[in-house]
Amino acid sequence: MSGLSARIGRDIECGYRAPSNGTSTARPTGTLGQRPANNVRVVACRVVEMLTVEIEGCRASHARLAARIEGLTDEVVREPSLLPAWSVGHVLTHLARNAEAMVRRIEATTRGEVIDQYVGGAEGRASEIESGAGRPANVLINDVISWSQRLDATFVSLPDDSWSRPVRSGRGDEHPVARLPFHRWWEVEVHLVDLAIGHTPADWPQELVDRALPRLVAGLANRADPRSLMAWTLGRGPAPGLES
Fold first, then answer.
1. Measured CA angle at 22 (ends 16, 28), to 5 deg
2. What is the 3 state secondary structure string of 89-109?
3. How far, in Å, CA of 31 to CA of 163, rounded?
4. What distance lies between CA 102 and its chain's CA centroid?
5. Tens of pLDDT, residues 167-192
6. What confidence tens digit (pLDDT) does each residue in 7-60 have?
7. In what helix (H) or strand (E) does residue 167 lie, and over which residues does it extend?
8. Residues 6+ positions from 158 with CB-CB distance below 8 Å
9. Share of residues in the chain with pLDDT > 90 (%)
10. Handedness of CA 204, 207, 210, 211 (dihedral sign)
């Protein structure tokens, strides 16, 4: 990682810690030799560490994805996935276009642009997935792997100042580029299960679960009847249906 890796040895190594009592007692344990004002560097350390874990998690999930799908036949990619109305080919096409969309949006930020996640919005996304799902297995596999590898290379080579630049999501809101590695990591692992080719929730990396589960739990109250949800968590009722 050009910029990011250069900072890892500098910022992560610095070892600054914010004092618990609010006093200015933090001291450097590395070699920089100067204390940052307002513990700014401890924030930089945590951000770099978070990105490093998520980029590596994404790369490892891409490797698992490649290993799972290599050798899939034309017959298998026509079979139903675990997603309603989607075949294995639909899921593979979505994974390829999702990686491509991330690369496109990141590259746009280097030109000072904020572009839509998918050309043509939600309709364009659906059209590309539908038109691409029926391709031969080897074409689908190459599409997924090549775009996944290109995204990995993009993350690794991204300059430091690019991580805070905005990109637009499919919903139209904007967020920093820095959120994309986690989003892709989540996307790949969840859809690996949806492919129904041997990957199960038991295979999800613990570091991903540790990051994703609190977010999912926090959103439960908005996806179910609150009393039914409370009863279920207390062992006093069945699991409620969840709105998507």
1. 20
2. HHHHHHHHHHHHHHHHHHHHH
3. 26
4. 10
5. 999 988 999 999 999 999 999 999 99
6. 433 333 333 333 344 443 333 333 333 444 454 444 456 667 889 999 999 999
7. strand 166-168
8. 1, 2, 3, 4, 106, 177
9. 75
10. negative
The H or E element spanning position 193 is helix 180-194
Return the residue matching tokens 């096409």: 93
Structure-block tokens of residue 5: 């890796």
CB–CB of 242/223 below 8 Å? yes
50 vs 153, higher pLDDT: 153
Q: How far apart (Å, rounded) are the C-alpha atoms in residues 204 and 210?
A: 10
What CA–CA distances, in Å, run from 95 to 70, 82, 109, 207? Answer: 15, 15, 22, 21
Read off the amino acid at residue 100.
E
Cβ-in-10-Å burial (0-12, 13-18, 19+) of 168 comes to middle
Tokens 């290993």 correspond to 67
